[in-house]
Amino acid sequence: MKNKKRELPYLLFLLVMPILGLIYKILNNNPREAVILSTEVDGMIPFLPVFIIPYIIWYAFIFGYLVYFWYKDTRVYMKTLTLIVVGELICFLIYFFFQTTVPRPKLVGDGIFLDLVAMIYSHDQPYNAFPSIHVLTTFAIILGSINIRNKHLFHSIFVPAMGSLIILSTLFVKQHYILDMFASMFLTSFIYGIVFELFEFKVSKKQDTAYVKD
């Protein structure tokens, strides 16, 4: 634990997340024509308000597991955070030049799930859809978790299970289309291969400093 205290400053890199959120908000508008990337498959996917639960859990899932990665292996934490930052910056570039939109269903009825969907809809404009940042960041955590050694069985099962629910939730609450999901997973996989195979991070330990390549 003493070594982890020496590595506390690395948690400050998490401050980049609200900055990315601000950029997202600035781009989440429609000053130009937005494209709809719906497919026949999307038309067959039902609107299931209950999936708003894993959709919202995403916020704690990303932050919580980044902190967990830092605790278990600072190098994996830094690589995963780098993967997320680079991925989101590429998404922002795409949003600027190729804005897409996802028409939302009319919310009829009442209930806690519909209320939560309405809350998300009111706080997140229906743009910035391709690729999906929700999917990109979730898939980054799933891939990063593979590199965590000696983790509890709970995390080995929970991360891919909850991650999959979060990714699917983007479709069932009509925040994204199939193409948004696959584009994010492809982009994340591509960046993952570069960051985890080619990048080296210098992490100071109590007794030595070394470059380690996972």
From TrEMBL:
<feature type="domain" description="Inositolphosphotransferase Aur1/Ipt1">
    <location>
        <begin position="57"/>
        <end position="192"/>
    </location>
</feature>
<feature type="transmembrane region" description="Helical">
    <location>
        <begin position="178"/>
        <end position="199"/>
    </location>
</feature>
<keyword id="KW-0812">Transmembrane</keyword>
<dbReference type="GO" id="GO:0016020">
    <property type="term" value="C:membrane"/>
</dbReference>
<feature type="transmembrane region" description="Helical">
    <location>
        <begin position="153"/>
        <end position="172"/>
    </location>
</feature>
<dbReference type="InterPro" id="IPR036938">
    <property type="entry name" value="PAP2/HPO_sf"/>
</dbReference>
<keyword id="KW-1133">Transmembrane helix</keyword>
<dbReference type="InterPro" id="IPR026841">
    <property type="entry name" value="Aur1/Ipt1"/>
</dbReference>
<keyword id="KW-0472">Membrane</keyword>
<feature type="transmembrane region" description="Helical">
    <location>
        <begin position="80"/>
        <end position="98"/>
    </location>
</feature>
<dbReference type="Pfam" id="PF14378">
    <property type="entry name" value="PAP2_3"/>
</dbReference>
<feature type="transmembrane region" description="Helical">
    <location>
        <begin position="129"/>
        <end position="146"/>
    </location>
</feature>
<feature type="transmembrane region" description="Helical">
    <location>
        <begin position="7"/>
        <end position="27"/>
    </location>
</feature>
<protein>
    <submittedName>
        <fullName>Phosphoesterase</fullName>
    </submittedName>
</protein>
<feature type="transmembrane region" description="Helical">
    <location>
        <begin position="47"/>
        <end position="68"/>
    </location>
</feature>
